[in-house]
From TrEMBL:
This is Kinase. Keywords: ATP-binding, Kinase, Nucleotide-binding, Transferase. Coiled coil: none annotated. Belongs to the inositol phosphokinase (IPK) family. It catalyses: 1D-myo-inositol 1,3,4,6-tetrakisphosphate + ATP = 1D-myo-inositol 1,3,4,5,6-pentakisphosphate + ADP + H(+); 1D-myo-inositol 1,4,5-trisphosphate + 2 ATP = 1D-myo-inositol 1,3,4,5,6-pentakisphosphate + 2 ADP + 2 H(+). Residues 1-22, 254-278 are annotated as: Disordered. The keyword Repeat does not apply. InterPro entries: IPK, IPK_sf. One of its GO terms (biological process) is inositol phosphate biosynthetic process. The lineage of its organism: Eukaryota, Metazoa, Chordata, Craniata, Vertebrata. Its EC number is 2.7.-.-. It comes from Sinocyclocheilus grahami (Dianchi golden-line fish). GO terms for molecular function: ATP binding; inositol tetrakisphosphate kinase activity; inositol-1,4,5-trisphosphate 3-kinase activity. The keyword Kinase applies.
Length: 372
């Protein structure tokens, strides 16, 4: 770690590189239950998974987030289940799907069936050198049912939340010259004040040589699209929820995808029936490219229509690209912005002003970066 709290690391991709890293360093990286490994692109959050490893990556490339203790874990699971319900007819929820990682149901390790995980799309998956930032959104990090103690604790963590409306929880930024990542943790985010928050955000877009202005503007339009969803709905309020921002740090154009199919024999078939973890990585991507939805849509969320598309949900989107896509993955498409972390989502009957305040301030700060 450097003097200003930056952490340098050189990890680039997950499963492919794990093998190489393991061999190179002579130290075997932990392979956990059912072939799952710690997710190497986690930039914030709890380390509450198996052996305190936080978010895990399944051999099929999906992310596994262990259900937290009640009521948070079940609340998050219910939220994902509701939004991606096969029989969902709620237009707002159907619209919301495009802003979330795809949800593939729950998963239990065959070797440890008492544990329960949410199985999610890895938002960083199609990137060669993903630059990732987790930004907590809203003026309050506590929900309406929080105890006074919890409120005080949350406020004391970042008293400026009320005024700024967002908090950088963590980031990893690829540096071209050194071929390494610089990381900043939650303490860096909490150190940012009104007059330094723009510089803090700017760091996320600087690759050591230049400011990635195009990535800034692409991310702005994705956030605007999320803001439009919030402006059109009154039924849900989100507390302590985050946006996960990702852009491509690699200077090289990526042809289709960086991903290799999982090694034969690395697929694991344990788990609950609904998790269906026995689809190969290649099949997963190919199916994904056909459906523009998640690879397990036959058993979790959507019905397919005669064209093989999942019906009644999201419009086709440019950013959803799998290995089988004919379309090349150019820099124009090389960003993702997804909402994550739904342990504190509650029904409501009025607009989520707190979340929208955060989004608008985040947008105006990003726009300011472009003007400078
Ligand atoms: N679908 C995803 N794709 C890629 N990375 C993810 C995904 N979900 C989570 N992550 C990574 O894991 C981190 C933690 O995730 P998340 O915020 O959902 O958990 P948490 O903060 O531990 O949960 P909670 O705040 O509910 O206790 C994120 O900052 C991000 O780096
Ligand atoms: Mg979080």
């Amino acid at each position: 770690m450097s003097a200003d709290g930056q952490i340098m690391d050189s990890s680039s991709r997950t499963l492919d590189n794990l093998e190489k890293e393991n061999n190179k360093n002579g130290s075997v990286r932990q392979v956990l239950l059912d072939g799952c490994v710690p997710f190497s692109h986690q930039v914030a959050g709890h380390k509450c998974g198996i052996n305190n490893t936080g978010v895990l990556q399944h051999p099929d490339g999906t992310i596994l987030k262990q259900l937290q203790t009640p009521p948070r874990g079940p609340r998050e699971m219910n939220f994902y289940t509701q939004v991606f319900a096969k029989d969902c007819t709620d237009k707002k929820l159907l619209d919301l799907q495009q802003h979330l990682p795809k949800y593939y149901g729950t998963w239990r390790p065959g070797e440890s069936p008492h544990e329960l995980y949410l199985k999610l799309e890895d938002v960083t998956r199609r990137f060669l050198r993903p630059c990732i930032m987790d930004v907590k959104i809203g003026r309050r990090s506590y929900d309406p049912f929080a105890s006074q103690e919890k409120r005080d604790e949350q406020i004391s963590k970042y008293p400026l939340m009320e005024e700024i409306g967002f908090l950088l929880l963590g980031m990893r930024v690829y540096q071209i010259d050194s071929d390494r990542y610089i990381s900043h943790d939650q303490f860096y985010g909490r150190s940012l004040e009104k007059d330094s928050i723009k510089n803090g955000l700017t760091r996320f877009f600087h690759n050591g040589q230049e400011l990635r202005r195009h990535a800034v503007s692409l991310i702005i339009s994705k956030i605007q699209s999320i803001l439009r969803w919030f402006e059109s709905q009154t039924q849900l309020h989100f507390y302590a929820s985050s946006l996960l921002l990702v852009y491509e740090g690699s200077p090289h154009r990526v042809n289709g995808s960086k991903h290799k199919p999982a090694e034969p024999g690395t697929e694991h078939q344990q788990g609950e029936p609904q998790s269906n973890s026995n689809i190969s990585h290649e099949a997963l991507s190919f199916q994904s490219s056909l459906t523009h939805s998640h690879p397990y849509c036959h058993n979790v969320q959507h019905e397919r229509n005669a064209n093989g598309k999942c019906g009644g949900s999201v419009e086709e989107k440019d950013e959803e690209i799998g290995i089988g896509d004919k379309k090349q993955f150019g820099q124009e498409e090389a960003v993702e912005v997804k909402m994550i972390d739904f342990a504190h989502v509650f029904p409501s009957d009025n607009p989520d002003e707190s979340y929208m305040y955060g989004l608008r301030n985040l947008l105006s700060t990003l726009e300011q970066i472009l003007k400078d």
